[in-house]
């Protein structure tokens, strides 16, 4: 039986028919061949089983493969998620750092803007101060030149000092910028204070006091004519009736007395005054000489000033009692007035002030 099954299971190679080959034998009495039913093949189950096994193996392998792939994808995805989270954390940290840096930059920009505003305000204030400083320096320079001209052309020492004082006050408001100018002004003020200056106010006061004392001086006493002196006027001379005639007569007699009437009294030579009219003319002449001396002092003419005082002293010594205290005091005043400074060379203040004057141009 087993042998028979084996023979049925395994076809021999000599069998030309295969399960797929139809039987084309011709039945008797028919001209057409008749198909014989094929014998069922026994390899199909095996092949199906093998196919199923292959499919199962393939499915298992595919499942295992896909499972591995899924595991790998899960690992990759997990790693990716971890990386993404790490990167997100790093990015968050960087964003935080950038925000802090941005805030710091914004604070820096704000501080810079504030600094710019402060600098703008400082520059504006400095420009205003510079403009004011330039104005003050220019005014101080103008005052310095004014002081130079007052000394040079008018000998006005007080006016020059006042101008320099005002200029120094302007430069003092400038602070350190006006130090050089103030040093120059200080040197110029020292030169003005140390220089000899005309004593015009003292001279004017002294001449006024002298003029007031001349009218009260006592005339020389005990005057007697000397030999060879001029004869007195004739008694037959008509008596003047008008005021102008009396003045002319007195002036003529005064001139005649100056020319020839000389007497000696108390060991000195005097010219007598015959009547009060001649004394009046003498007083007027002395007052005119005082005014001449005053005018000479004002214009700075030292020669005319001294000559007028010398002539006043000579007339006082000739016509008045030189031993009387009033006359002695007047002559002492005349001596003091002659020692007063009428004219003096102004100090040179242009040298130290030249640098300051150059601020508005040379003279």
From TrEMBL:
Keywords: Coiled coil, Membrane, Transmembrane, Transmembrane helix. It holds the Pfam family HemX. Residues 1-20 have a biased composition (Basic and acidic residues). Residues 102-129 form a coiled coil. It comes from the Bacteria. The keyword Coiled coil applies. The chain crosses the membrane at residues 46-66. InterPro entries: HemX. Residues 1-39 are annotated as: Disordered. PANTHER family: PROTEIN HEMX (PTHR38043:SF1). This is Heme biosynthesis operon protein HemX. It comes from Spiribacter salilacus.
């Amino acid at each position: 039986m087993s042998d028979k099954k084996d023979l049925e299971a395994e076809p021999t190679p000599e069998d030309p028919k295969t399960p797929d080959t139809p039987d084309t034998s011709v039945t008797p009495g028919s001209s057409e061949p008749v198909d014989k039913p094929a014998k069922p093949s026994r390899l199909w189950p095996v092949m199906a089983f093998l196919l199923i096994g292959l499919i199962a193996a393939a499915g298992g392998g595919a499942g295992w493969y896909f499972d591995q792939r899924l595991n790998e994808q899960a690992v990759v995805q997990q790693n990716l998620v971890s990386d993404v989270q790490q990167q997100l954390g790093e990015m968050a940290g960087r964003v935080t750092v950038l925000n802090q840096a941005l805030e710091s930059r914004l604070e820096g920009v704000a501080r810079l803007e504030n600094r710019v505003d402060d600098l703008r305000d400082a520059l504006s204030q400095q420009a205003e101060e510079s403009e004011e400083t330039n104005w003050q320096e220019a005014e101080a320079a103008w005052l310095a030149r004014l002081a130079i001209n007052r000394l040079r052309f008018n000998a006005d020492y007080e006016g020059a000092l006042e101008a320099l004082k005002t200029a120094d006050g302007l430069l003092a408001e400038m602070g350190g910028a006006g130090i050089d100018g103030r040093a120059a002004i200080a040197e110029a003020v020292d030169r003005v204070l140390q220089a000899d200056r005309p004593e015009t106010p003292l001279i004017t006061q002294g001449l006024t006091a002298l003029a007031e004392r001349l009218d009260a001086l006592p005339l020389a006493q005990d005057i007697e004519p000397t030999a060879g002196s001029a004869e007195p006027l004739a008694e037959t001379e008509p008596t003047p009736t008008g005021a102008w005639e009396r003045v002319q007569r007195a002036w003529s007699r005064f001139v005649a007395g100056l020319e020839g009437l000389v007497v000696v009294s108390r060991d000195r030579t005097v010219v007598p005054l015959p009547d009060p009219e001649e004394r009046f003319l003498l007083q007027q002449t002395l007052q005119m000489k005082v005014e001449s001396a005053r005018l000479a002092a004002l214009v700075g003419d030292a020669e005319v000033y001294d000559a007028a005082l010398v002539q006043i002293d000579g007339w006082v010594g000739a016509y008045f009692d030189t031993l009387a205290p009033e006359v002695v005091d007047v002559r002492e005043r005349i001596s003091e007035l002659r020692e007063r400074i009428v004219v003096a060379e102004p100090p040179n203040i242009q040298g130290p002030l030249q640098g300051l004057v150059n601020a508005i141009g040379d003279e």
